[in-house]
Amino acid sequence: MLENTAETEQARPLPAEEAKKYTVVPLRYPWRWVTAALVLVVLGFVAKAFLAADINYDVVIKYLTNAGILTGVRNTLVLLLASMTLGMVLGVLAAVMRQSPNPVLRWVAGGYIWLFRGTPLLVQLLIWFNLSIIFESFTIPGLVSIPMNTLMTPFVAALLGLGINEGAYISEIVRGGILAVDHGQREAASAIGMSRAKTMRRIVLPQAMRVIVPPLGNEFISCLKFTSLAYTISYSELLHSANKIYTANFKVIELLFTAAIWYIALTTIFSFFQQLLEDRLSRGVPGARVGFIQRLRRNLSLRRAS
Predict the structure, then answer these.
(1) Residue 68 contacts by C-beta under 8 Å, 6 or more apart in sequence?
(2) Positive or negative: CA dihedral 201, 84, 262, 66
(3) 203: burial class by Cβ within 10 Å (0-12, 13-18, 19+)?
(4) Per-residue pLDDT band at 2 (split at 50, 70, 90)
(5) How far apart are CA 263 and CA 259, in angstroms?
(6) Which residues, 6+ apart, have CB-to-CB distance to 74 below 8 Å?
(7) Which tens digits make up the pLDDT trace of 256-295?
(8) How far apart are CA 238 and CA 263, in angstroms?
(9) What gap in Å lies between CA 237 and CA 297, rounded to an integer?
(10) Residue 1: its pLDDT value, please?
């Protein structure tokens, strides 16, 4: 007790008159400046190398709005949204099945996750695209029969490959969010007569969203970049469109830079919307970080009040 009292006395601020007798010397961190200087030197060498290289940057800018590149961007977005929609449906379904008391459902969901997380995405895309080697046609007896070569277009193969693969990863993200919700919430819902399905839909999943959204946003951005693998099965996404152009004009690095700029732009836009969603879900949570949009709104409201 005496030691704590002495420490408290020492921690008290000095009176203003006595504080004037002392000179405050800020801490110096020389190694920070050394590290910053080294980083700037390295960046300078890299920038010099890019500027000295035989690269026509006017071509990079010119093809940003080229019709073929814009078509590739559109196809990339269509594939991304369709794949993530399929992945979300499969992921939530598999996550709920993993929590089921039915062992068959748990084993099926576990086998699906094990299989598609255990094989490379590129291999999965190639298998889907060449599925006609295994199945000659897609047949529903008495209803329809379609040759597999006709059905399995590059878009369908890319959609199934990306969507089913994403579902396996999203299921683990959703399962982690479900486990983060206190079990007492389910017990309380059961006590008032709610079914397991209704409890999951109305109680557990809405609360799990705060945990699910950040890694799900990262998965969305990863899926955006993985769409470039559809280039191998001749789907006309962004990279494939760039490839067709630089095969004709031999401006390889310029068109690759153009594609890279588009990928960075799309990633930045989606990251911004992810941050907005995270800020919205964290409202009212004690200790939650105040987001950029919330700070901006607060500053605007304070200015109007003044």
Answers:
(1) 241, 244, 245
(2) negative
(3) middle
(4) very low
(5) 6
(6) none
(7) 999 999 999 999 999 999 888 888 877 655 555 555 555 5
(8) 9
(9) 38
(10) 46
